[in-house]
């Protein structure tokens, strides 16, 4: 039974993770929050105390940590006796934090793929470039590493596995749809780190279709979805982490990811991209200063966590799964709807952070209980989905199913 | 009789100035080009030699100079025995270069108002914030300083004066219209230094109407003009240097400036401005680097001088002047049409640089001849316009008149 959680990162998602760990600290034990800027960790600690989120009295502490520094991370894991590390820091630190976990035996979790700040990772499957190269060593050392266990990737991978297990004999297509129908009231803002957000859309769009990787450009393939609660929304085929693992684990089914974008977002994005302002490659100003344009765009945009207090509306994220059951073609939509305002009231973050931050806590609870303490590296679709969805159902992210039989909650015995 | 010209700056306008000085070096004497980056000056020298622009054999030299350094500028003026300084460097160096001219007795010229890099100059009349504070001292020292003698400001000021002298008993309104109907074939680019270009449009739009300053915001007031050669164009009321001097010198007439903008330019500008990327105030990146967003935008945009080889189409810039003549209301449009391709073939720069760079050379010729060597600080509308327009007519920027009597060339006896 692993216990004591070290949260790495201090943004909007870390805030959610901390609150949810606190609400379940009877299962999880002590909570430690570490990031480069210790003040941001302290603010999260204060928020957890203010909202009285701690279920029982455990240690709750803020730490300064450069998570690129493997030895410092190992030392902190040991000092805090953390059995579980939830990495919700920048996507650039994944491999360093994973290394520290492998060396100390702590369980590792993240919510997004590792990225090299200098490149937009181009070769599919993306996990093959970094994470999966450590799979063998994790197995040898008996270290549990659950990759991409936010909402998407994460819960949507569990939805795909649930569909495969319970609704189909053979899955032929998984279309993951992520719609944020909320409004933050700003001219323009990204819902999480702009640097990571834009990097998702500046590269090639990979999808897995007809048994091979297909490439498109961003905003090339659009589709109107009519979804529960949020209604009609325009979504575009986008490159996304989970396409890269599901392509391997869904027995050859097509896997595509669709993200909702308004015309205004697309216009701003297009202007910035065409001007070269989303580039991760440094440029030199007339005065000789070397600077990465994307980092300047990040600096002028609103801090995503500042959006939370005024965020209105809902998100709808889920999987349209097609395939065969008893020789018949069928389609199922497995989804969750989250509300920005509810999220802010409960944990002080908006809905996007909420959907990303609650799932790793559910996963931590399953590691603590032993059910998901698999002592190897896995993507979420390799794990039994029901225990995970069951906890999510109870701690804030209920699953619903819509198919020919209607629209209903997923039930647990 | 002043002689020998020192050109400060090495951009597209400096290139035009150098070529035109060379074509008239029998009147102007030696030509020196100075800028921070001596290589850029050398490239201009090479271009002048390649195109065999030198009318007679004179000294033609490149120099490295930080024009913010008054003592270094004075030393260069003395070393080169320059009687005339044409400042077409950054608008941030005007006051330093003017100081060097006042101390050495050289005649001073520029083509744009002085700017403090840290602020968007807000209080009208703009010349009153810097240049005009030196007017008394120029007079006492007998130093000739001609402010804003490019096309606009510059030639359009002479057009206003010509209208006042020859076409009206009383001028009631001057509407200056600047349309670039050319195309550079890039996604987006500015025609001169992006930093200066954008700074023109991020502040308050000042116009002089009904005997007082009126304020509007950029793109608030638009108007469709139907102009000779370039046809129908949408123009917007814009803040511009010459409004600030003409408001003082046109006996209370309304003075407005209108610049043509396509929808695409406006969209890109609006996105950049609303995001804060056109700000001249530094921001700090997540890594702690202090950087001025506008300087990064400048760094990613095409170098304006790189546009020249593929620039197609024409510019039309002129003054719609309204007023009374013999008790009757009348309107005159005094204008010039320039061609981007012709400009490139003649001097290796596009049309916008051409229209800005030819006029200061005409003014230099009038200082050399004594006609404009007025031994005080003036704006162009304070000088007799005909000698200036006569030279421009001969060296590449002919003036045309359109009114109830038709569309014709301005004639000189």
Question: What are its keywords?
Answer:
14 helices; 36% helix; 413 residues; globular; 2 domains; homodimer; Dihydrodipicolinate Reductase, domain 2; eight-stranded mixed beta sheet; Rossmann fold; 19 strands; 25% strand; alpha/beta
Model description:
Chains A, B: InterPro entries: NAD(P)-bd_dom_sf (IPR036291), Sacchrp_dh-like_C (IPR032095), Sacchrp_dh_NADP-bd (IPR005097). Chains A, B: Residues 150-396 form the Saccharopine dehydrogenase-like C-terminal domain. Chains A, B: Residues 5-146 form the Saccharopine dehydrogenase NADP binding domain. Two copies of one chain form a homodimer. By secondary structure, chain A is α/β, with parallel strands linked by helices. Chain A has two domains: 5-151 and 349-395, Rossmann fold (3-Layer(aba) Sandwich); 155-347 and 399-409, Dihydrodipicolinate Reductase, domain 2. Chain A is 36% helix and 25% strand. Chain A contains 14 helices and 19 strands. Chain A has an eight-stranded mixed sheet with strand order 10-11-12-7-15-16-18-19. A seven-stranded parallel sheet of chain A has the order 3-2-1-4-5-6-17, sandwiched between helices. A two-stranded antiparallel ribbon of chain A has the order 8-9. In chain A, helix 4 packs across helix 5 (94-104) and helix 13 (351-369) crosses helix 14. Chain A is globular. Chain A binds chain B through residues 187-188, 195, 267-268, 271-272, 274-277, 279, 283-287, 289, 291-293, 295-301, and chain B through 187-188, 195, 267-268, 271-272, 274-277, 279, 283-287, 289, 291-293, 295-301.
């Amino acid at each position: 039974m692993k216990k004591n959680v070290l949260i790495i990162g201090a943004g909007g998602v870390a805030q959610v993770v901390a609150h949810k760990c606190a609400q379940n600290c009877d299962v999880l034990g002590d909570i430690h929050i570490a990031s480069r800027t210790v003040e941001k960790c302290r603010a999260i600690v204060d928020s957890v105390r203010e909202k009285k989120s701690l279920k029982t009295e455990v240690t709750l502490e803020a730490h300064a940590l450069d998570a690129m520094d493997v030895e410092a991370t190992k030392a902190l894991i040991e000092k805090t006796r953390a059995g579980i590390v939830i990495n919700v820091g920048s996507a650039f630190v994944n491999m360093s934090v994973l290394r520290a976990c492998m060396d100390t035996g702590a369980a590792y979790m993240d919510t997004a793929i590792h990225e090299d700040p200098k490149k937009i990772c181009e070769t599919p499957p993306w996990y093959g470039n970094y994470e999966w190269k450590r799979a063998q060593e994790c197995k040898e050392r008996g270290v549990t590493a659950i990759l991409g266990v936010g909402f998407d990737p994460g819960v949507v991978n569990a939805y795909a596995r649930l569909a495969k297990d319970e609704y189909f004999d053979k899955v032929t297509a998984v279309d993951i749809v992520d719609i944020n129908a909320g409004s933050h009231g700003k001219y323009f803002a990204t819902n999480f780190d702009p640097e990571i957000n834009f990097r998702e859309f500046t590269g090639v769009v990979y999808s897995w279709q007809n048994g091979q990787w297909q490439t498109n450009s961003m905003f090339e393939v659009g589709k109107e979805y009519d979804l529960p609660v949020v209604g009609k929304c325009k979504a575009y085929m986008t490159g996304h982490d989970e396409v890269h693992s599901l392509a391997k684990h869904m027995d050859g089914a097509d896997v595509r990811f669709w993200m909702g974008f308004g015309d205004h977002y697309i216009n701003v994005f297009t202007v910035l991209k065409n001007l070269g302002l989303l580039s991760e490659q440094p440029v030199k100003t007339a005065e000789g200063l070397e600077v990465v344009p994307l980092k300047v765009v990040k600096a002028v945009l609103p801090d995503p966590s500042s959006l939370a207090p005024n965020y209105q509306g809902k998100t709808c994220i889920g999987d349209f799964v097609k395939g065969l059951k008893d020789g018949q073609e069928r389609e199922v939509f497995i989804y969750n709807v989250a509300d920005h305002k509810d999220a802010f009231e409960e944990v002080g973050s908006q809905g996007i952070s909420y959907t990303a931050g609650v799932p790793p806590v559910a996963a931590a609870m399953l590691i603590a209980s032993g059910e998901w303490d698999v002592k190897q590296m896995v993507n979420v679709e390799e794990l039994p989905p029901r225990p995970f969805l069951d906890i999510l159902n109870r701690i804030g992210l209920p699953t619903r199913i819509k198919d020919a039989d209607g629209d209903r909650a997923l039930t647990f015995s």
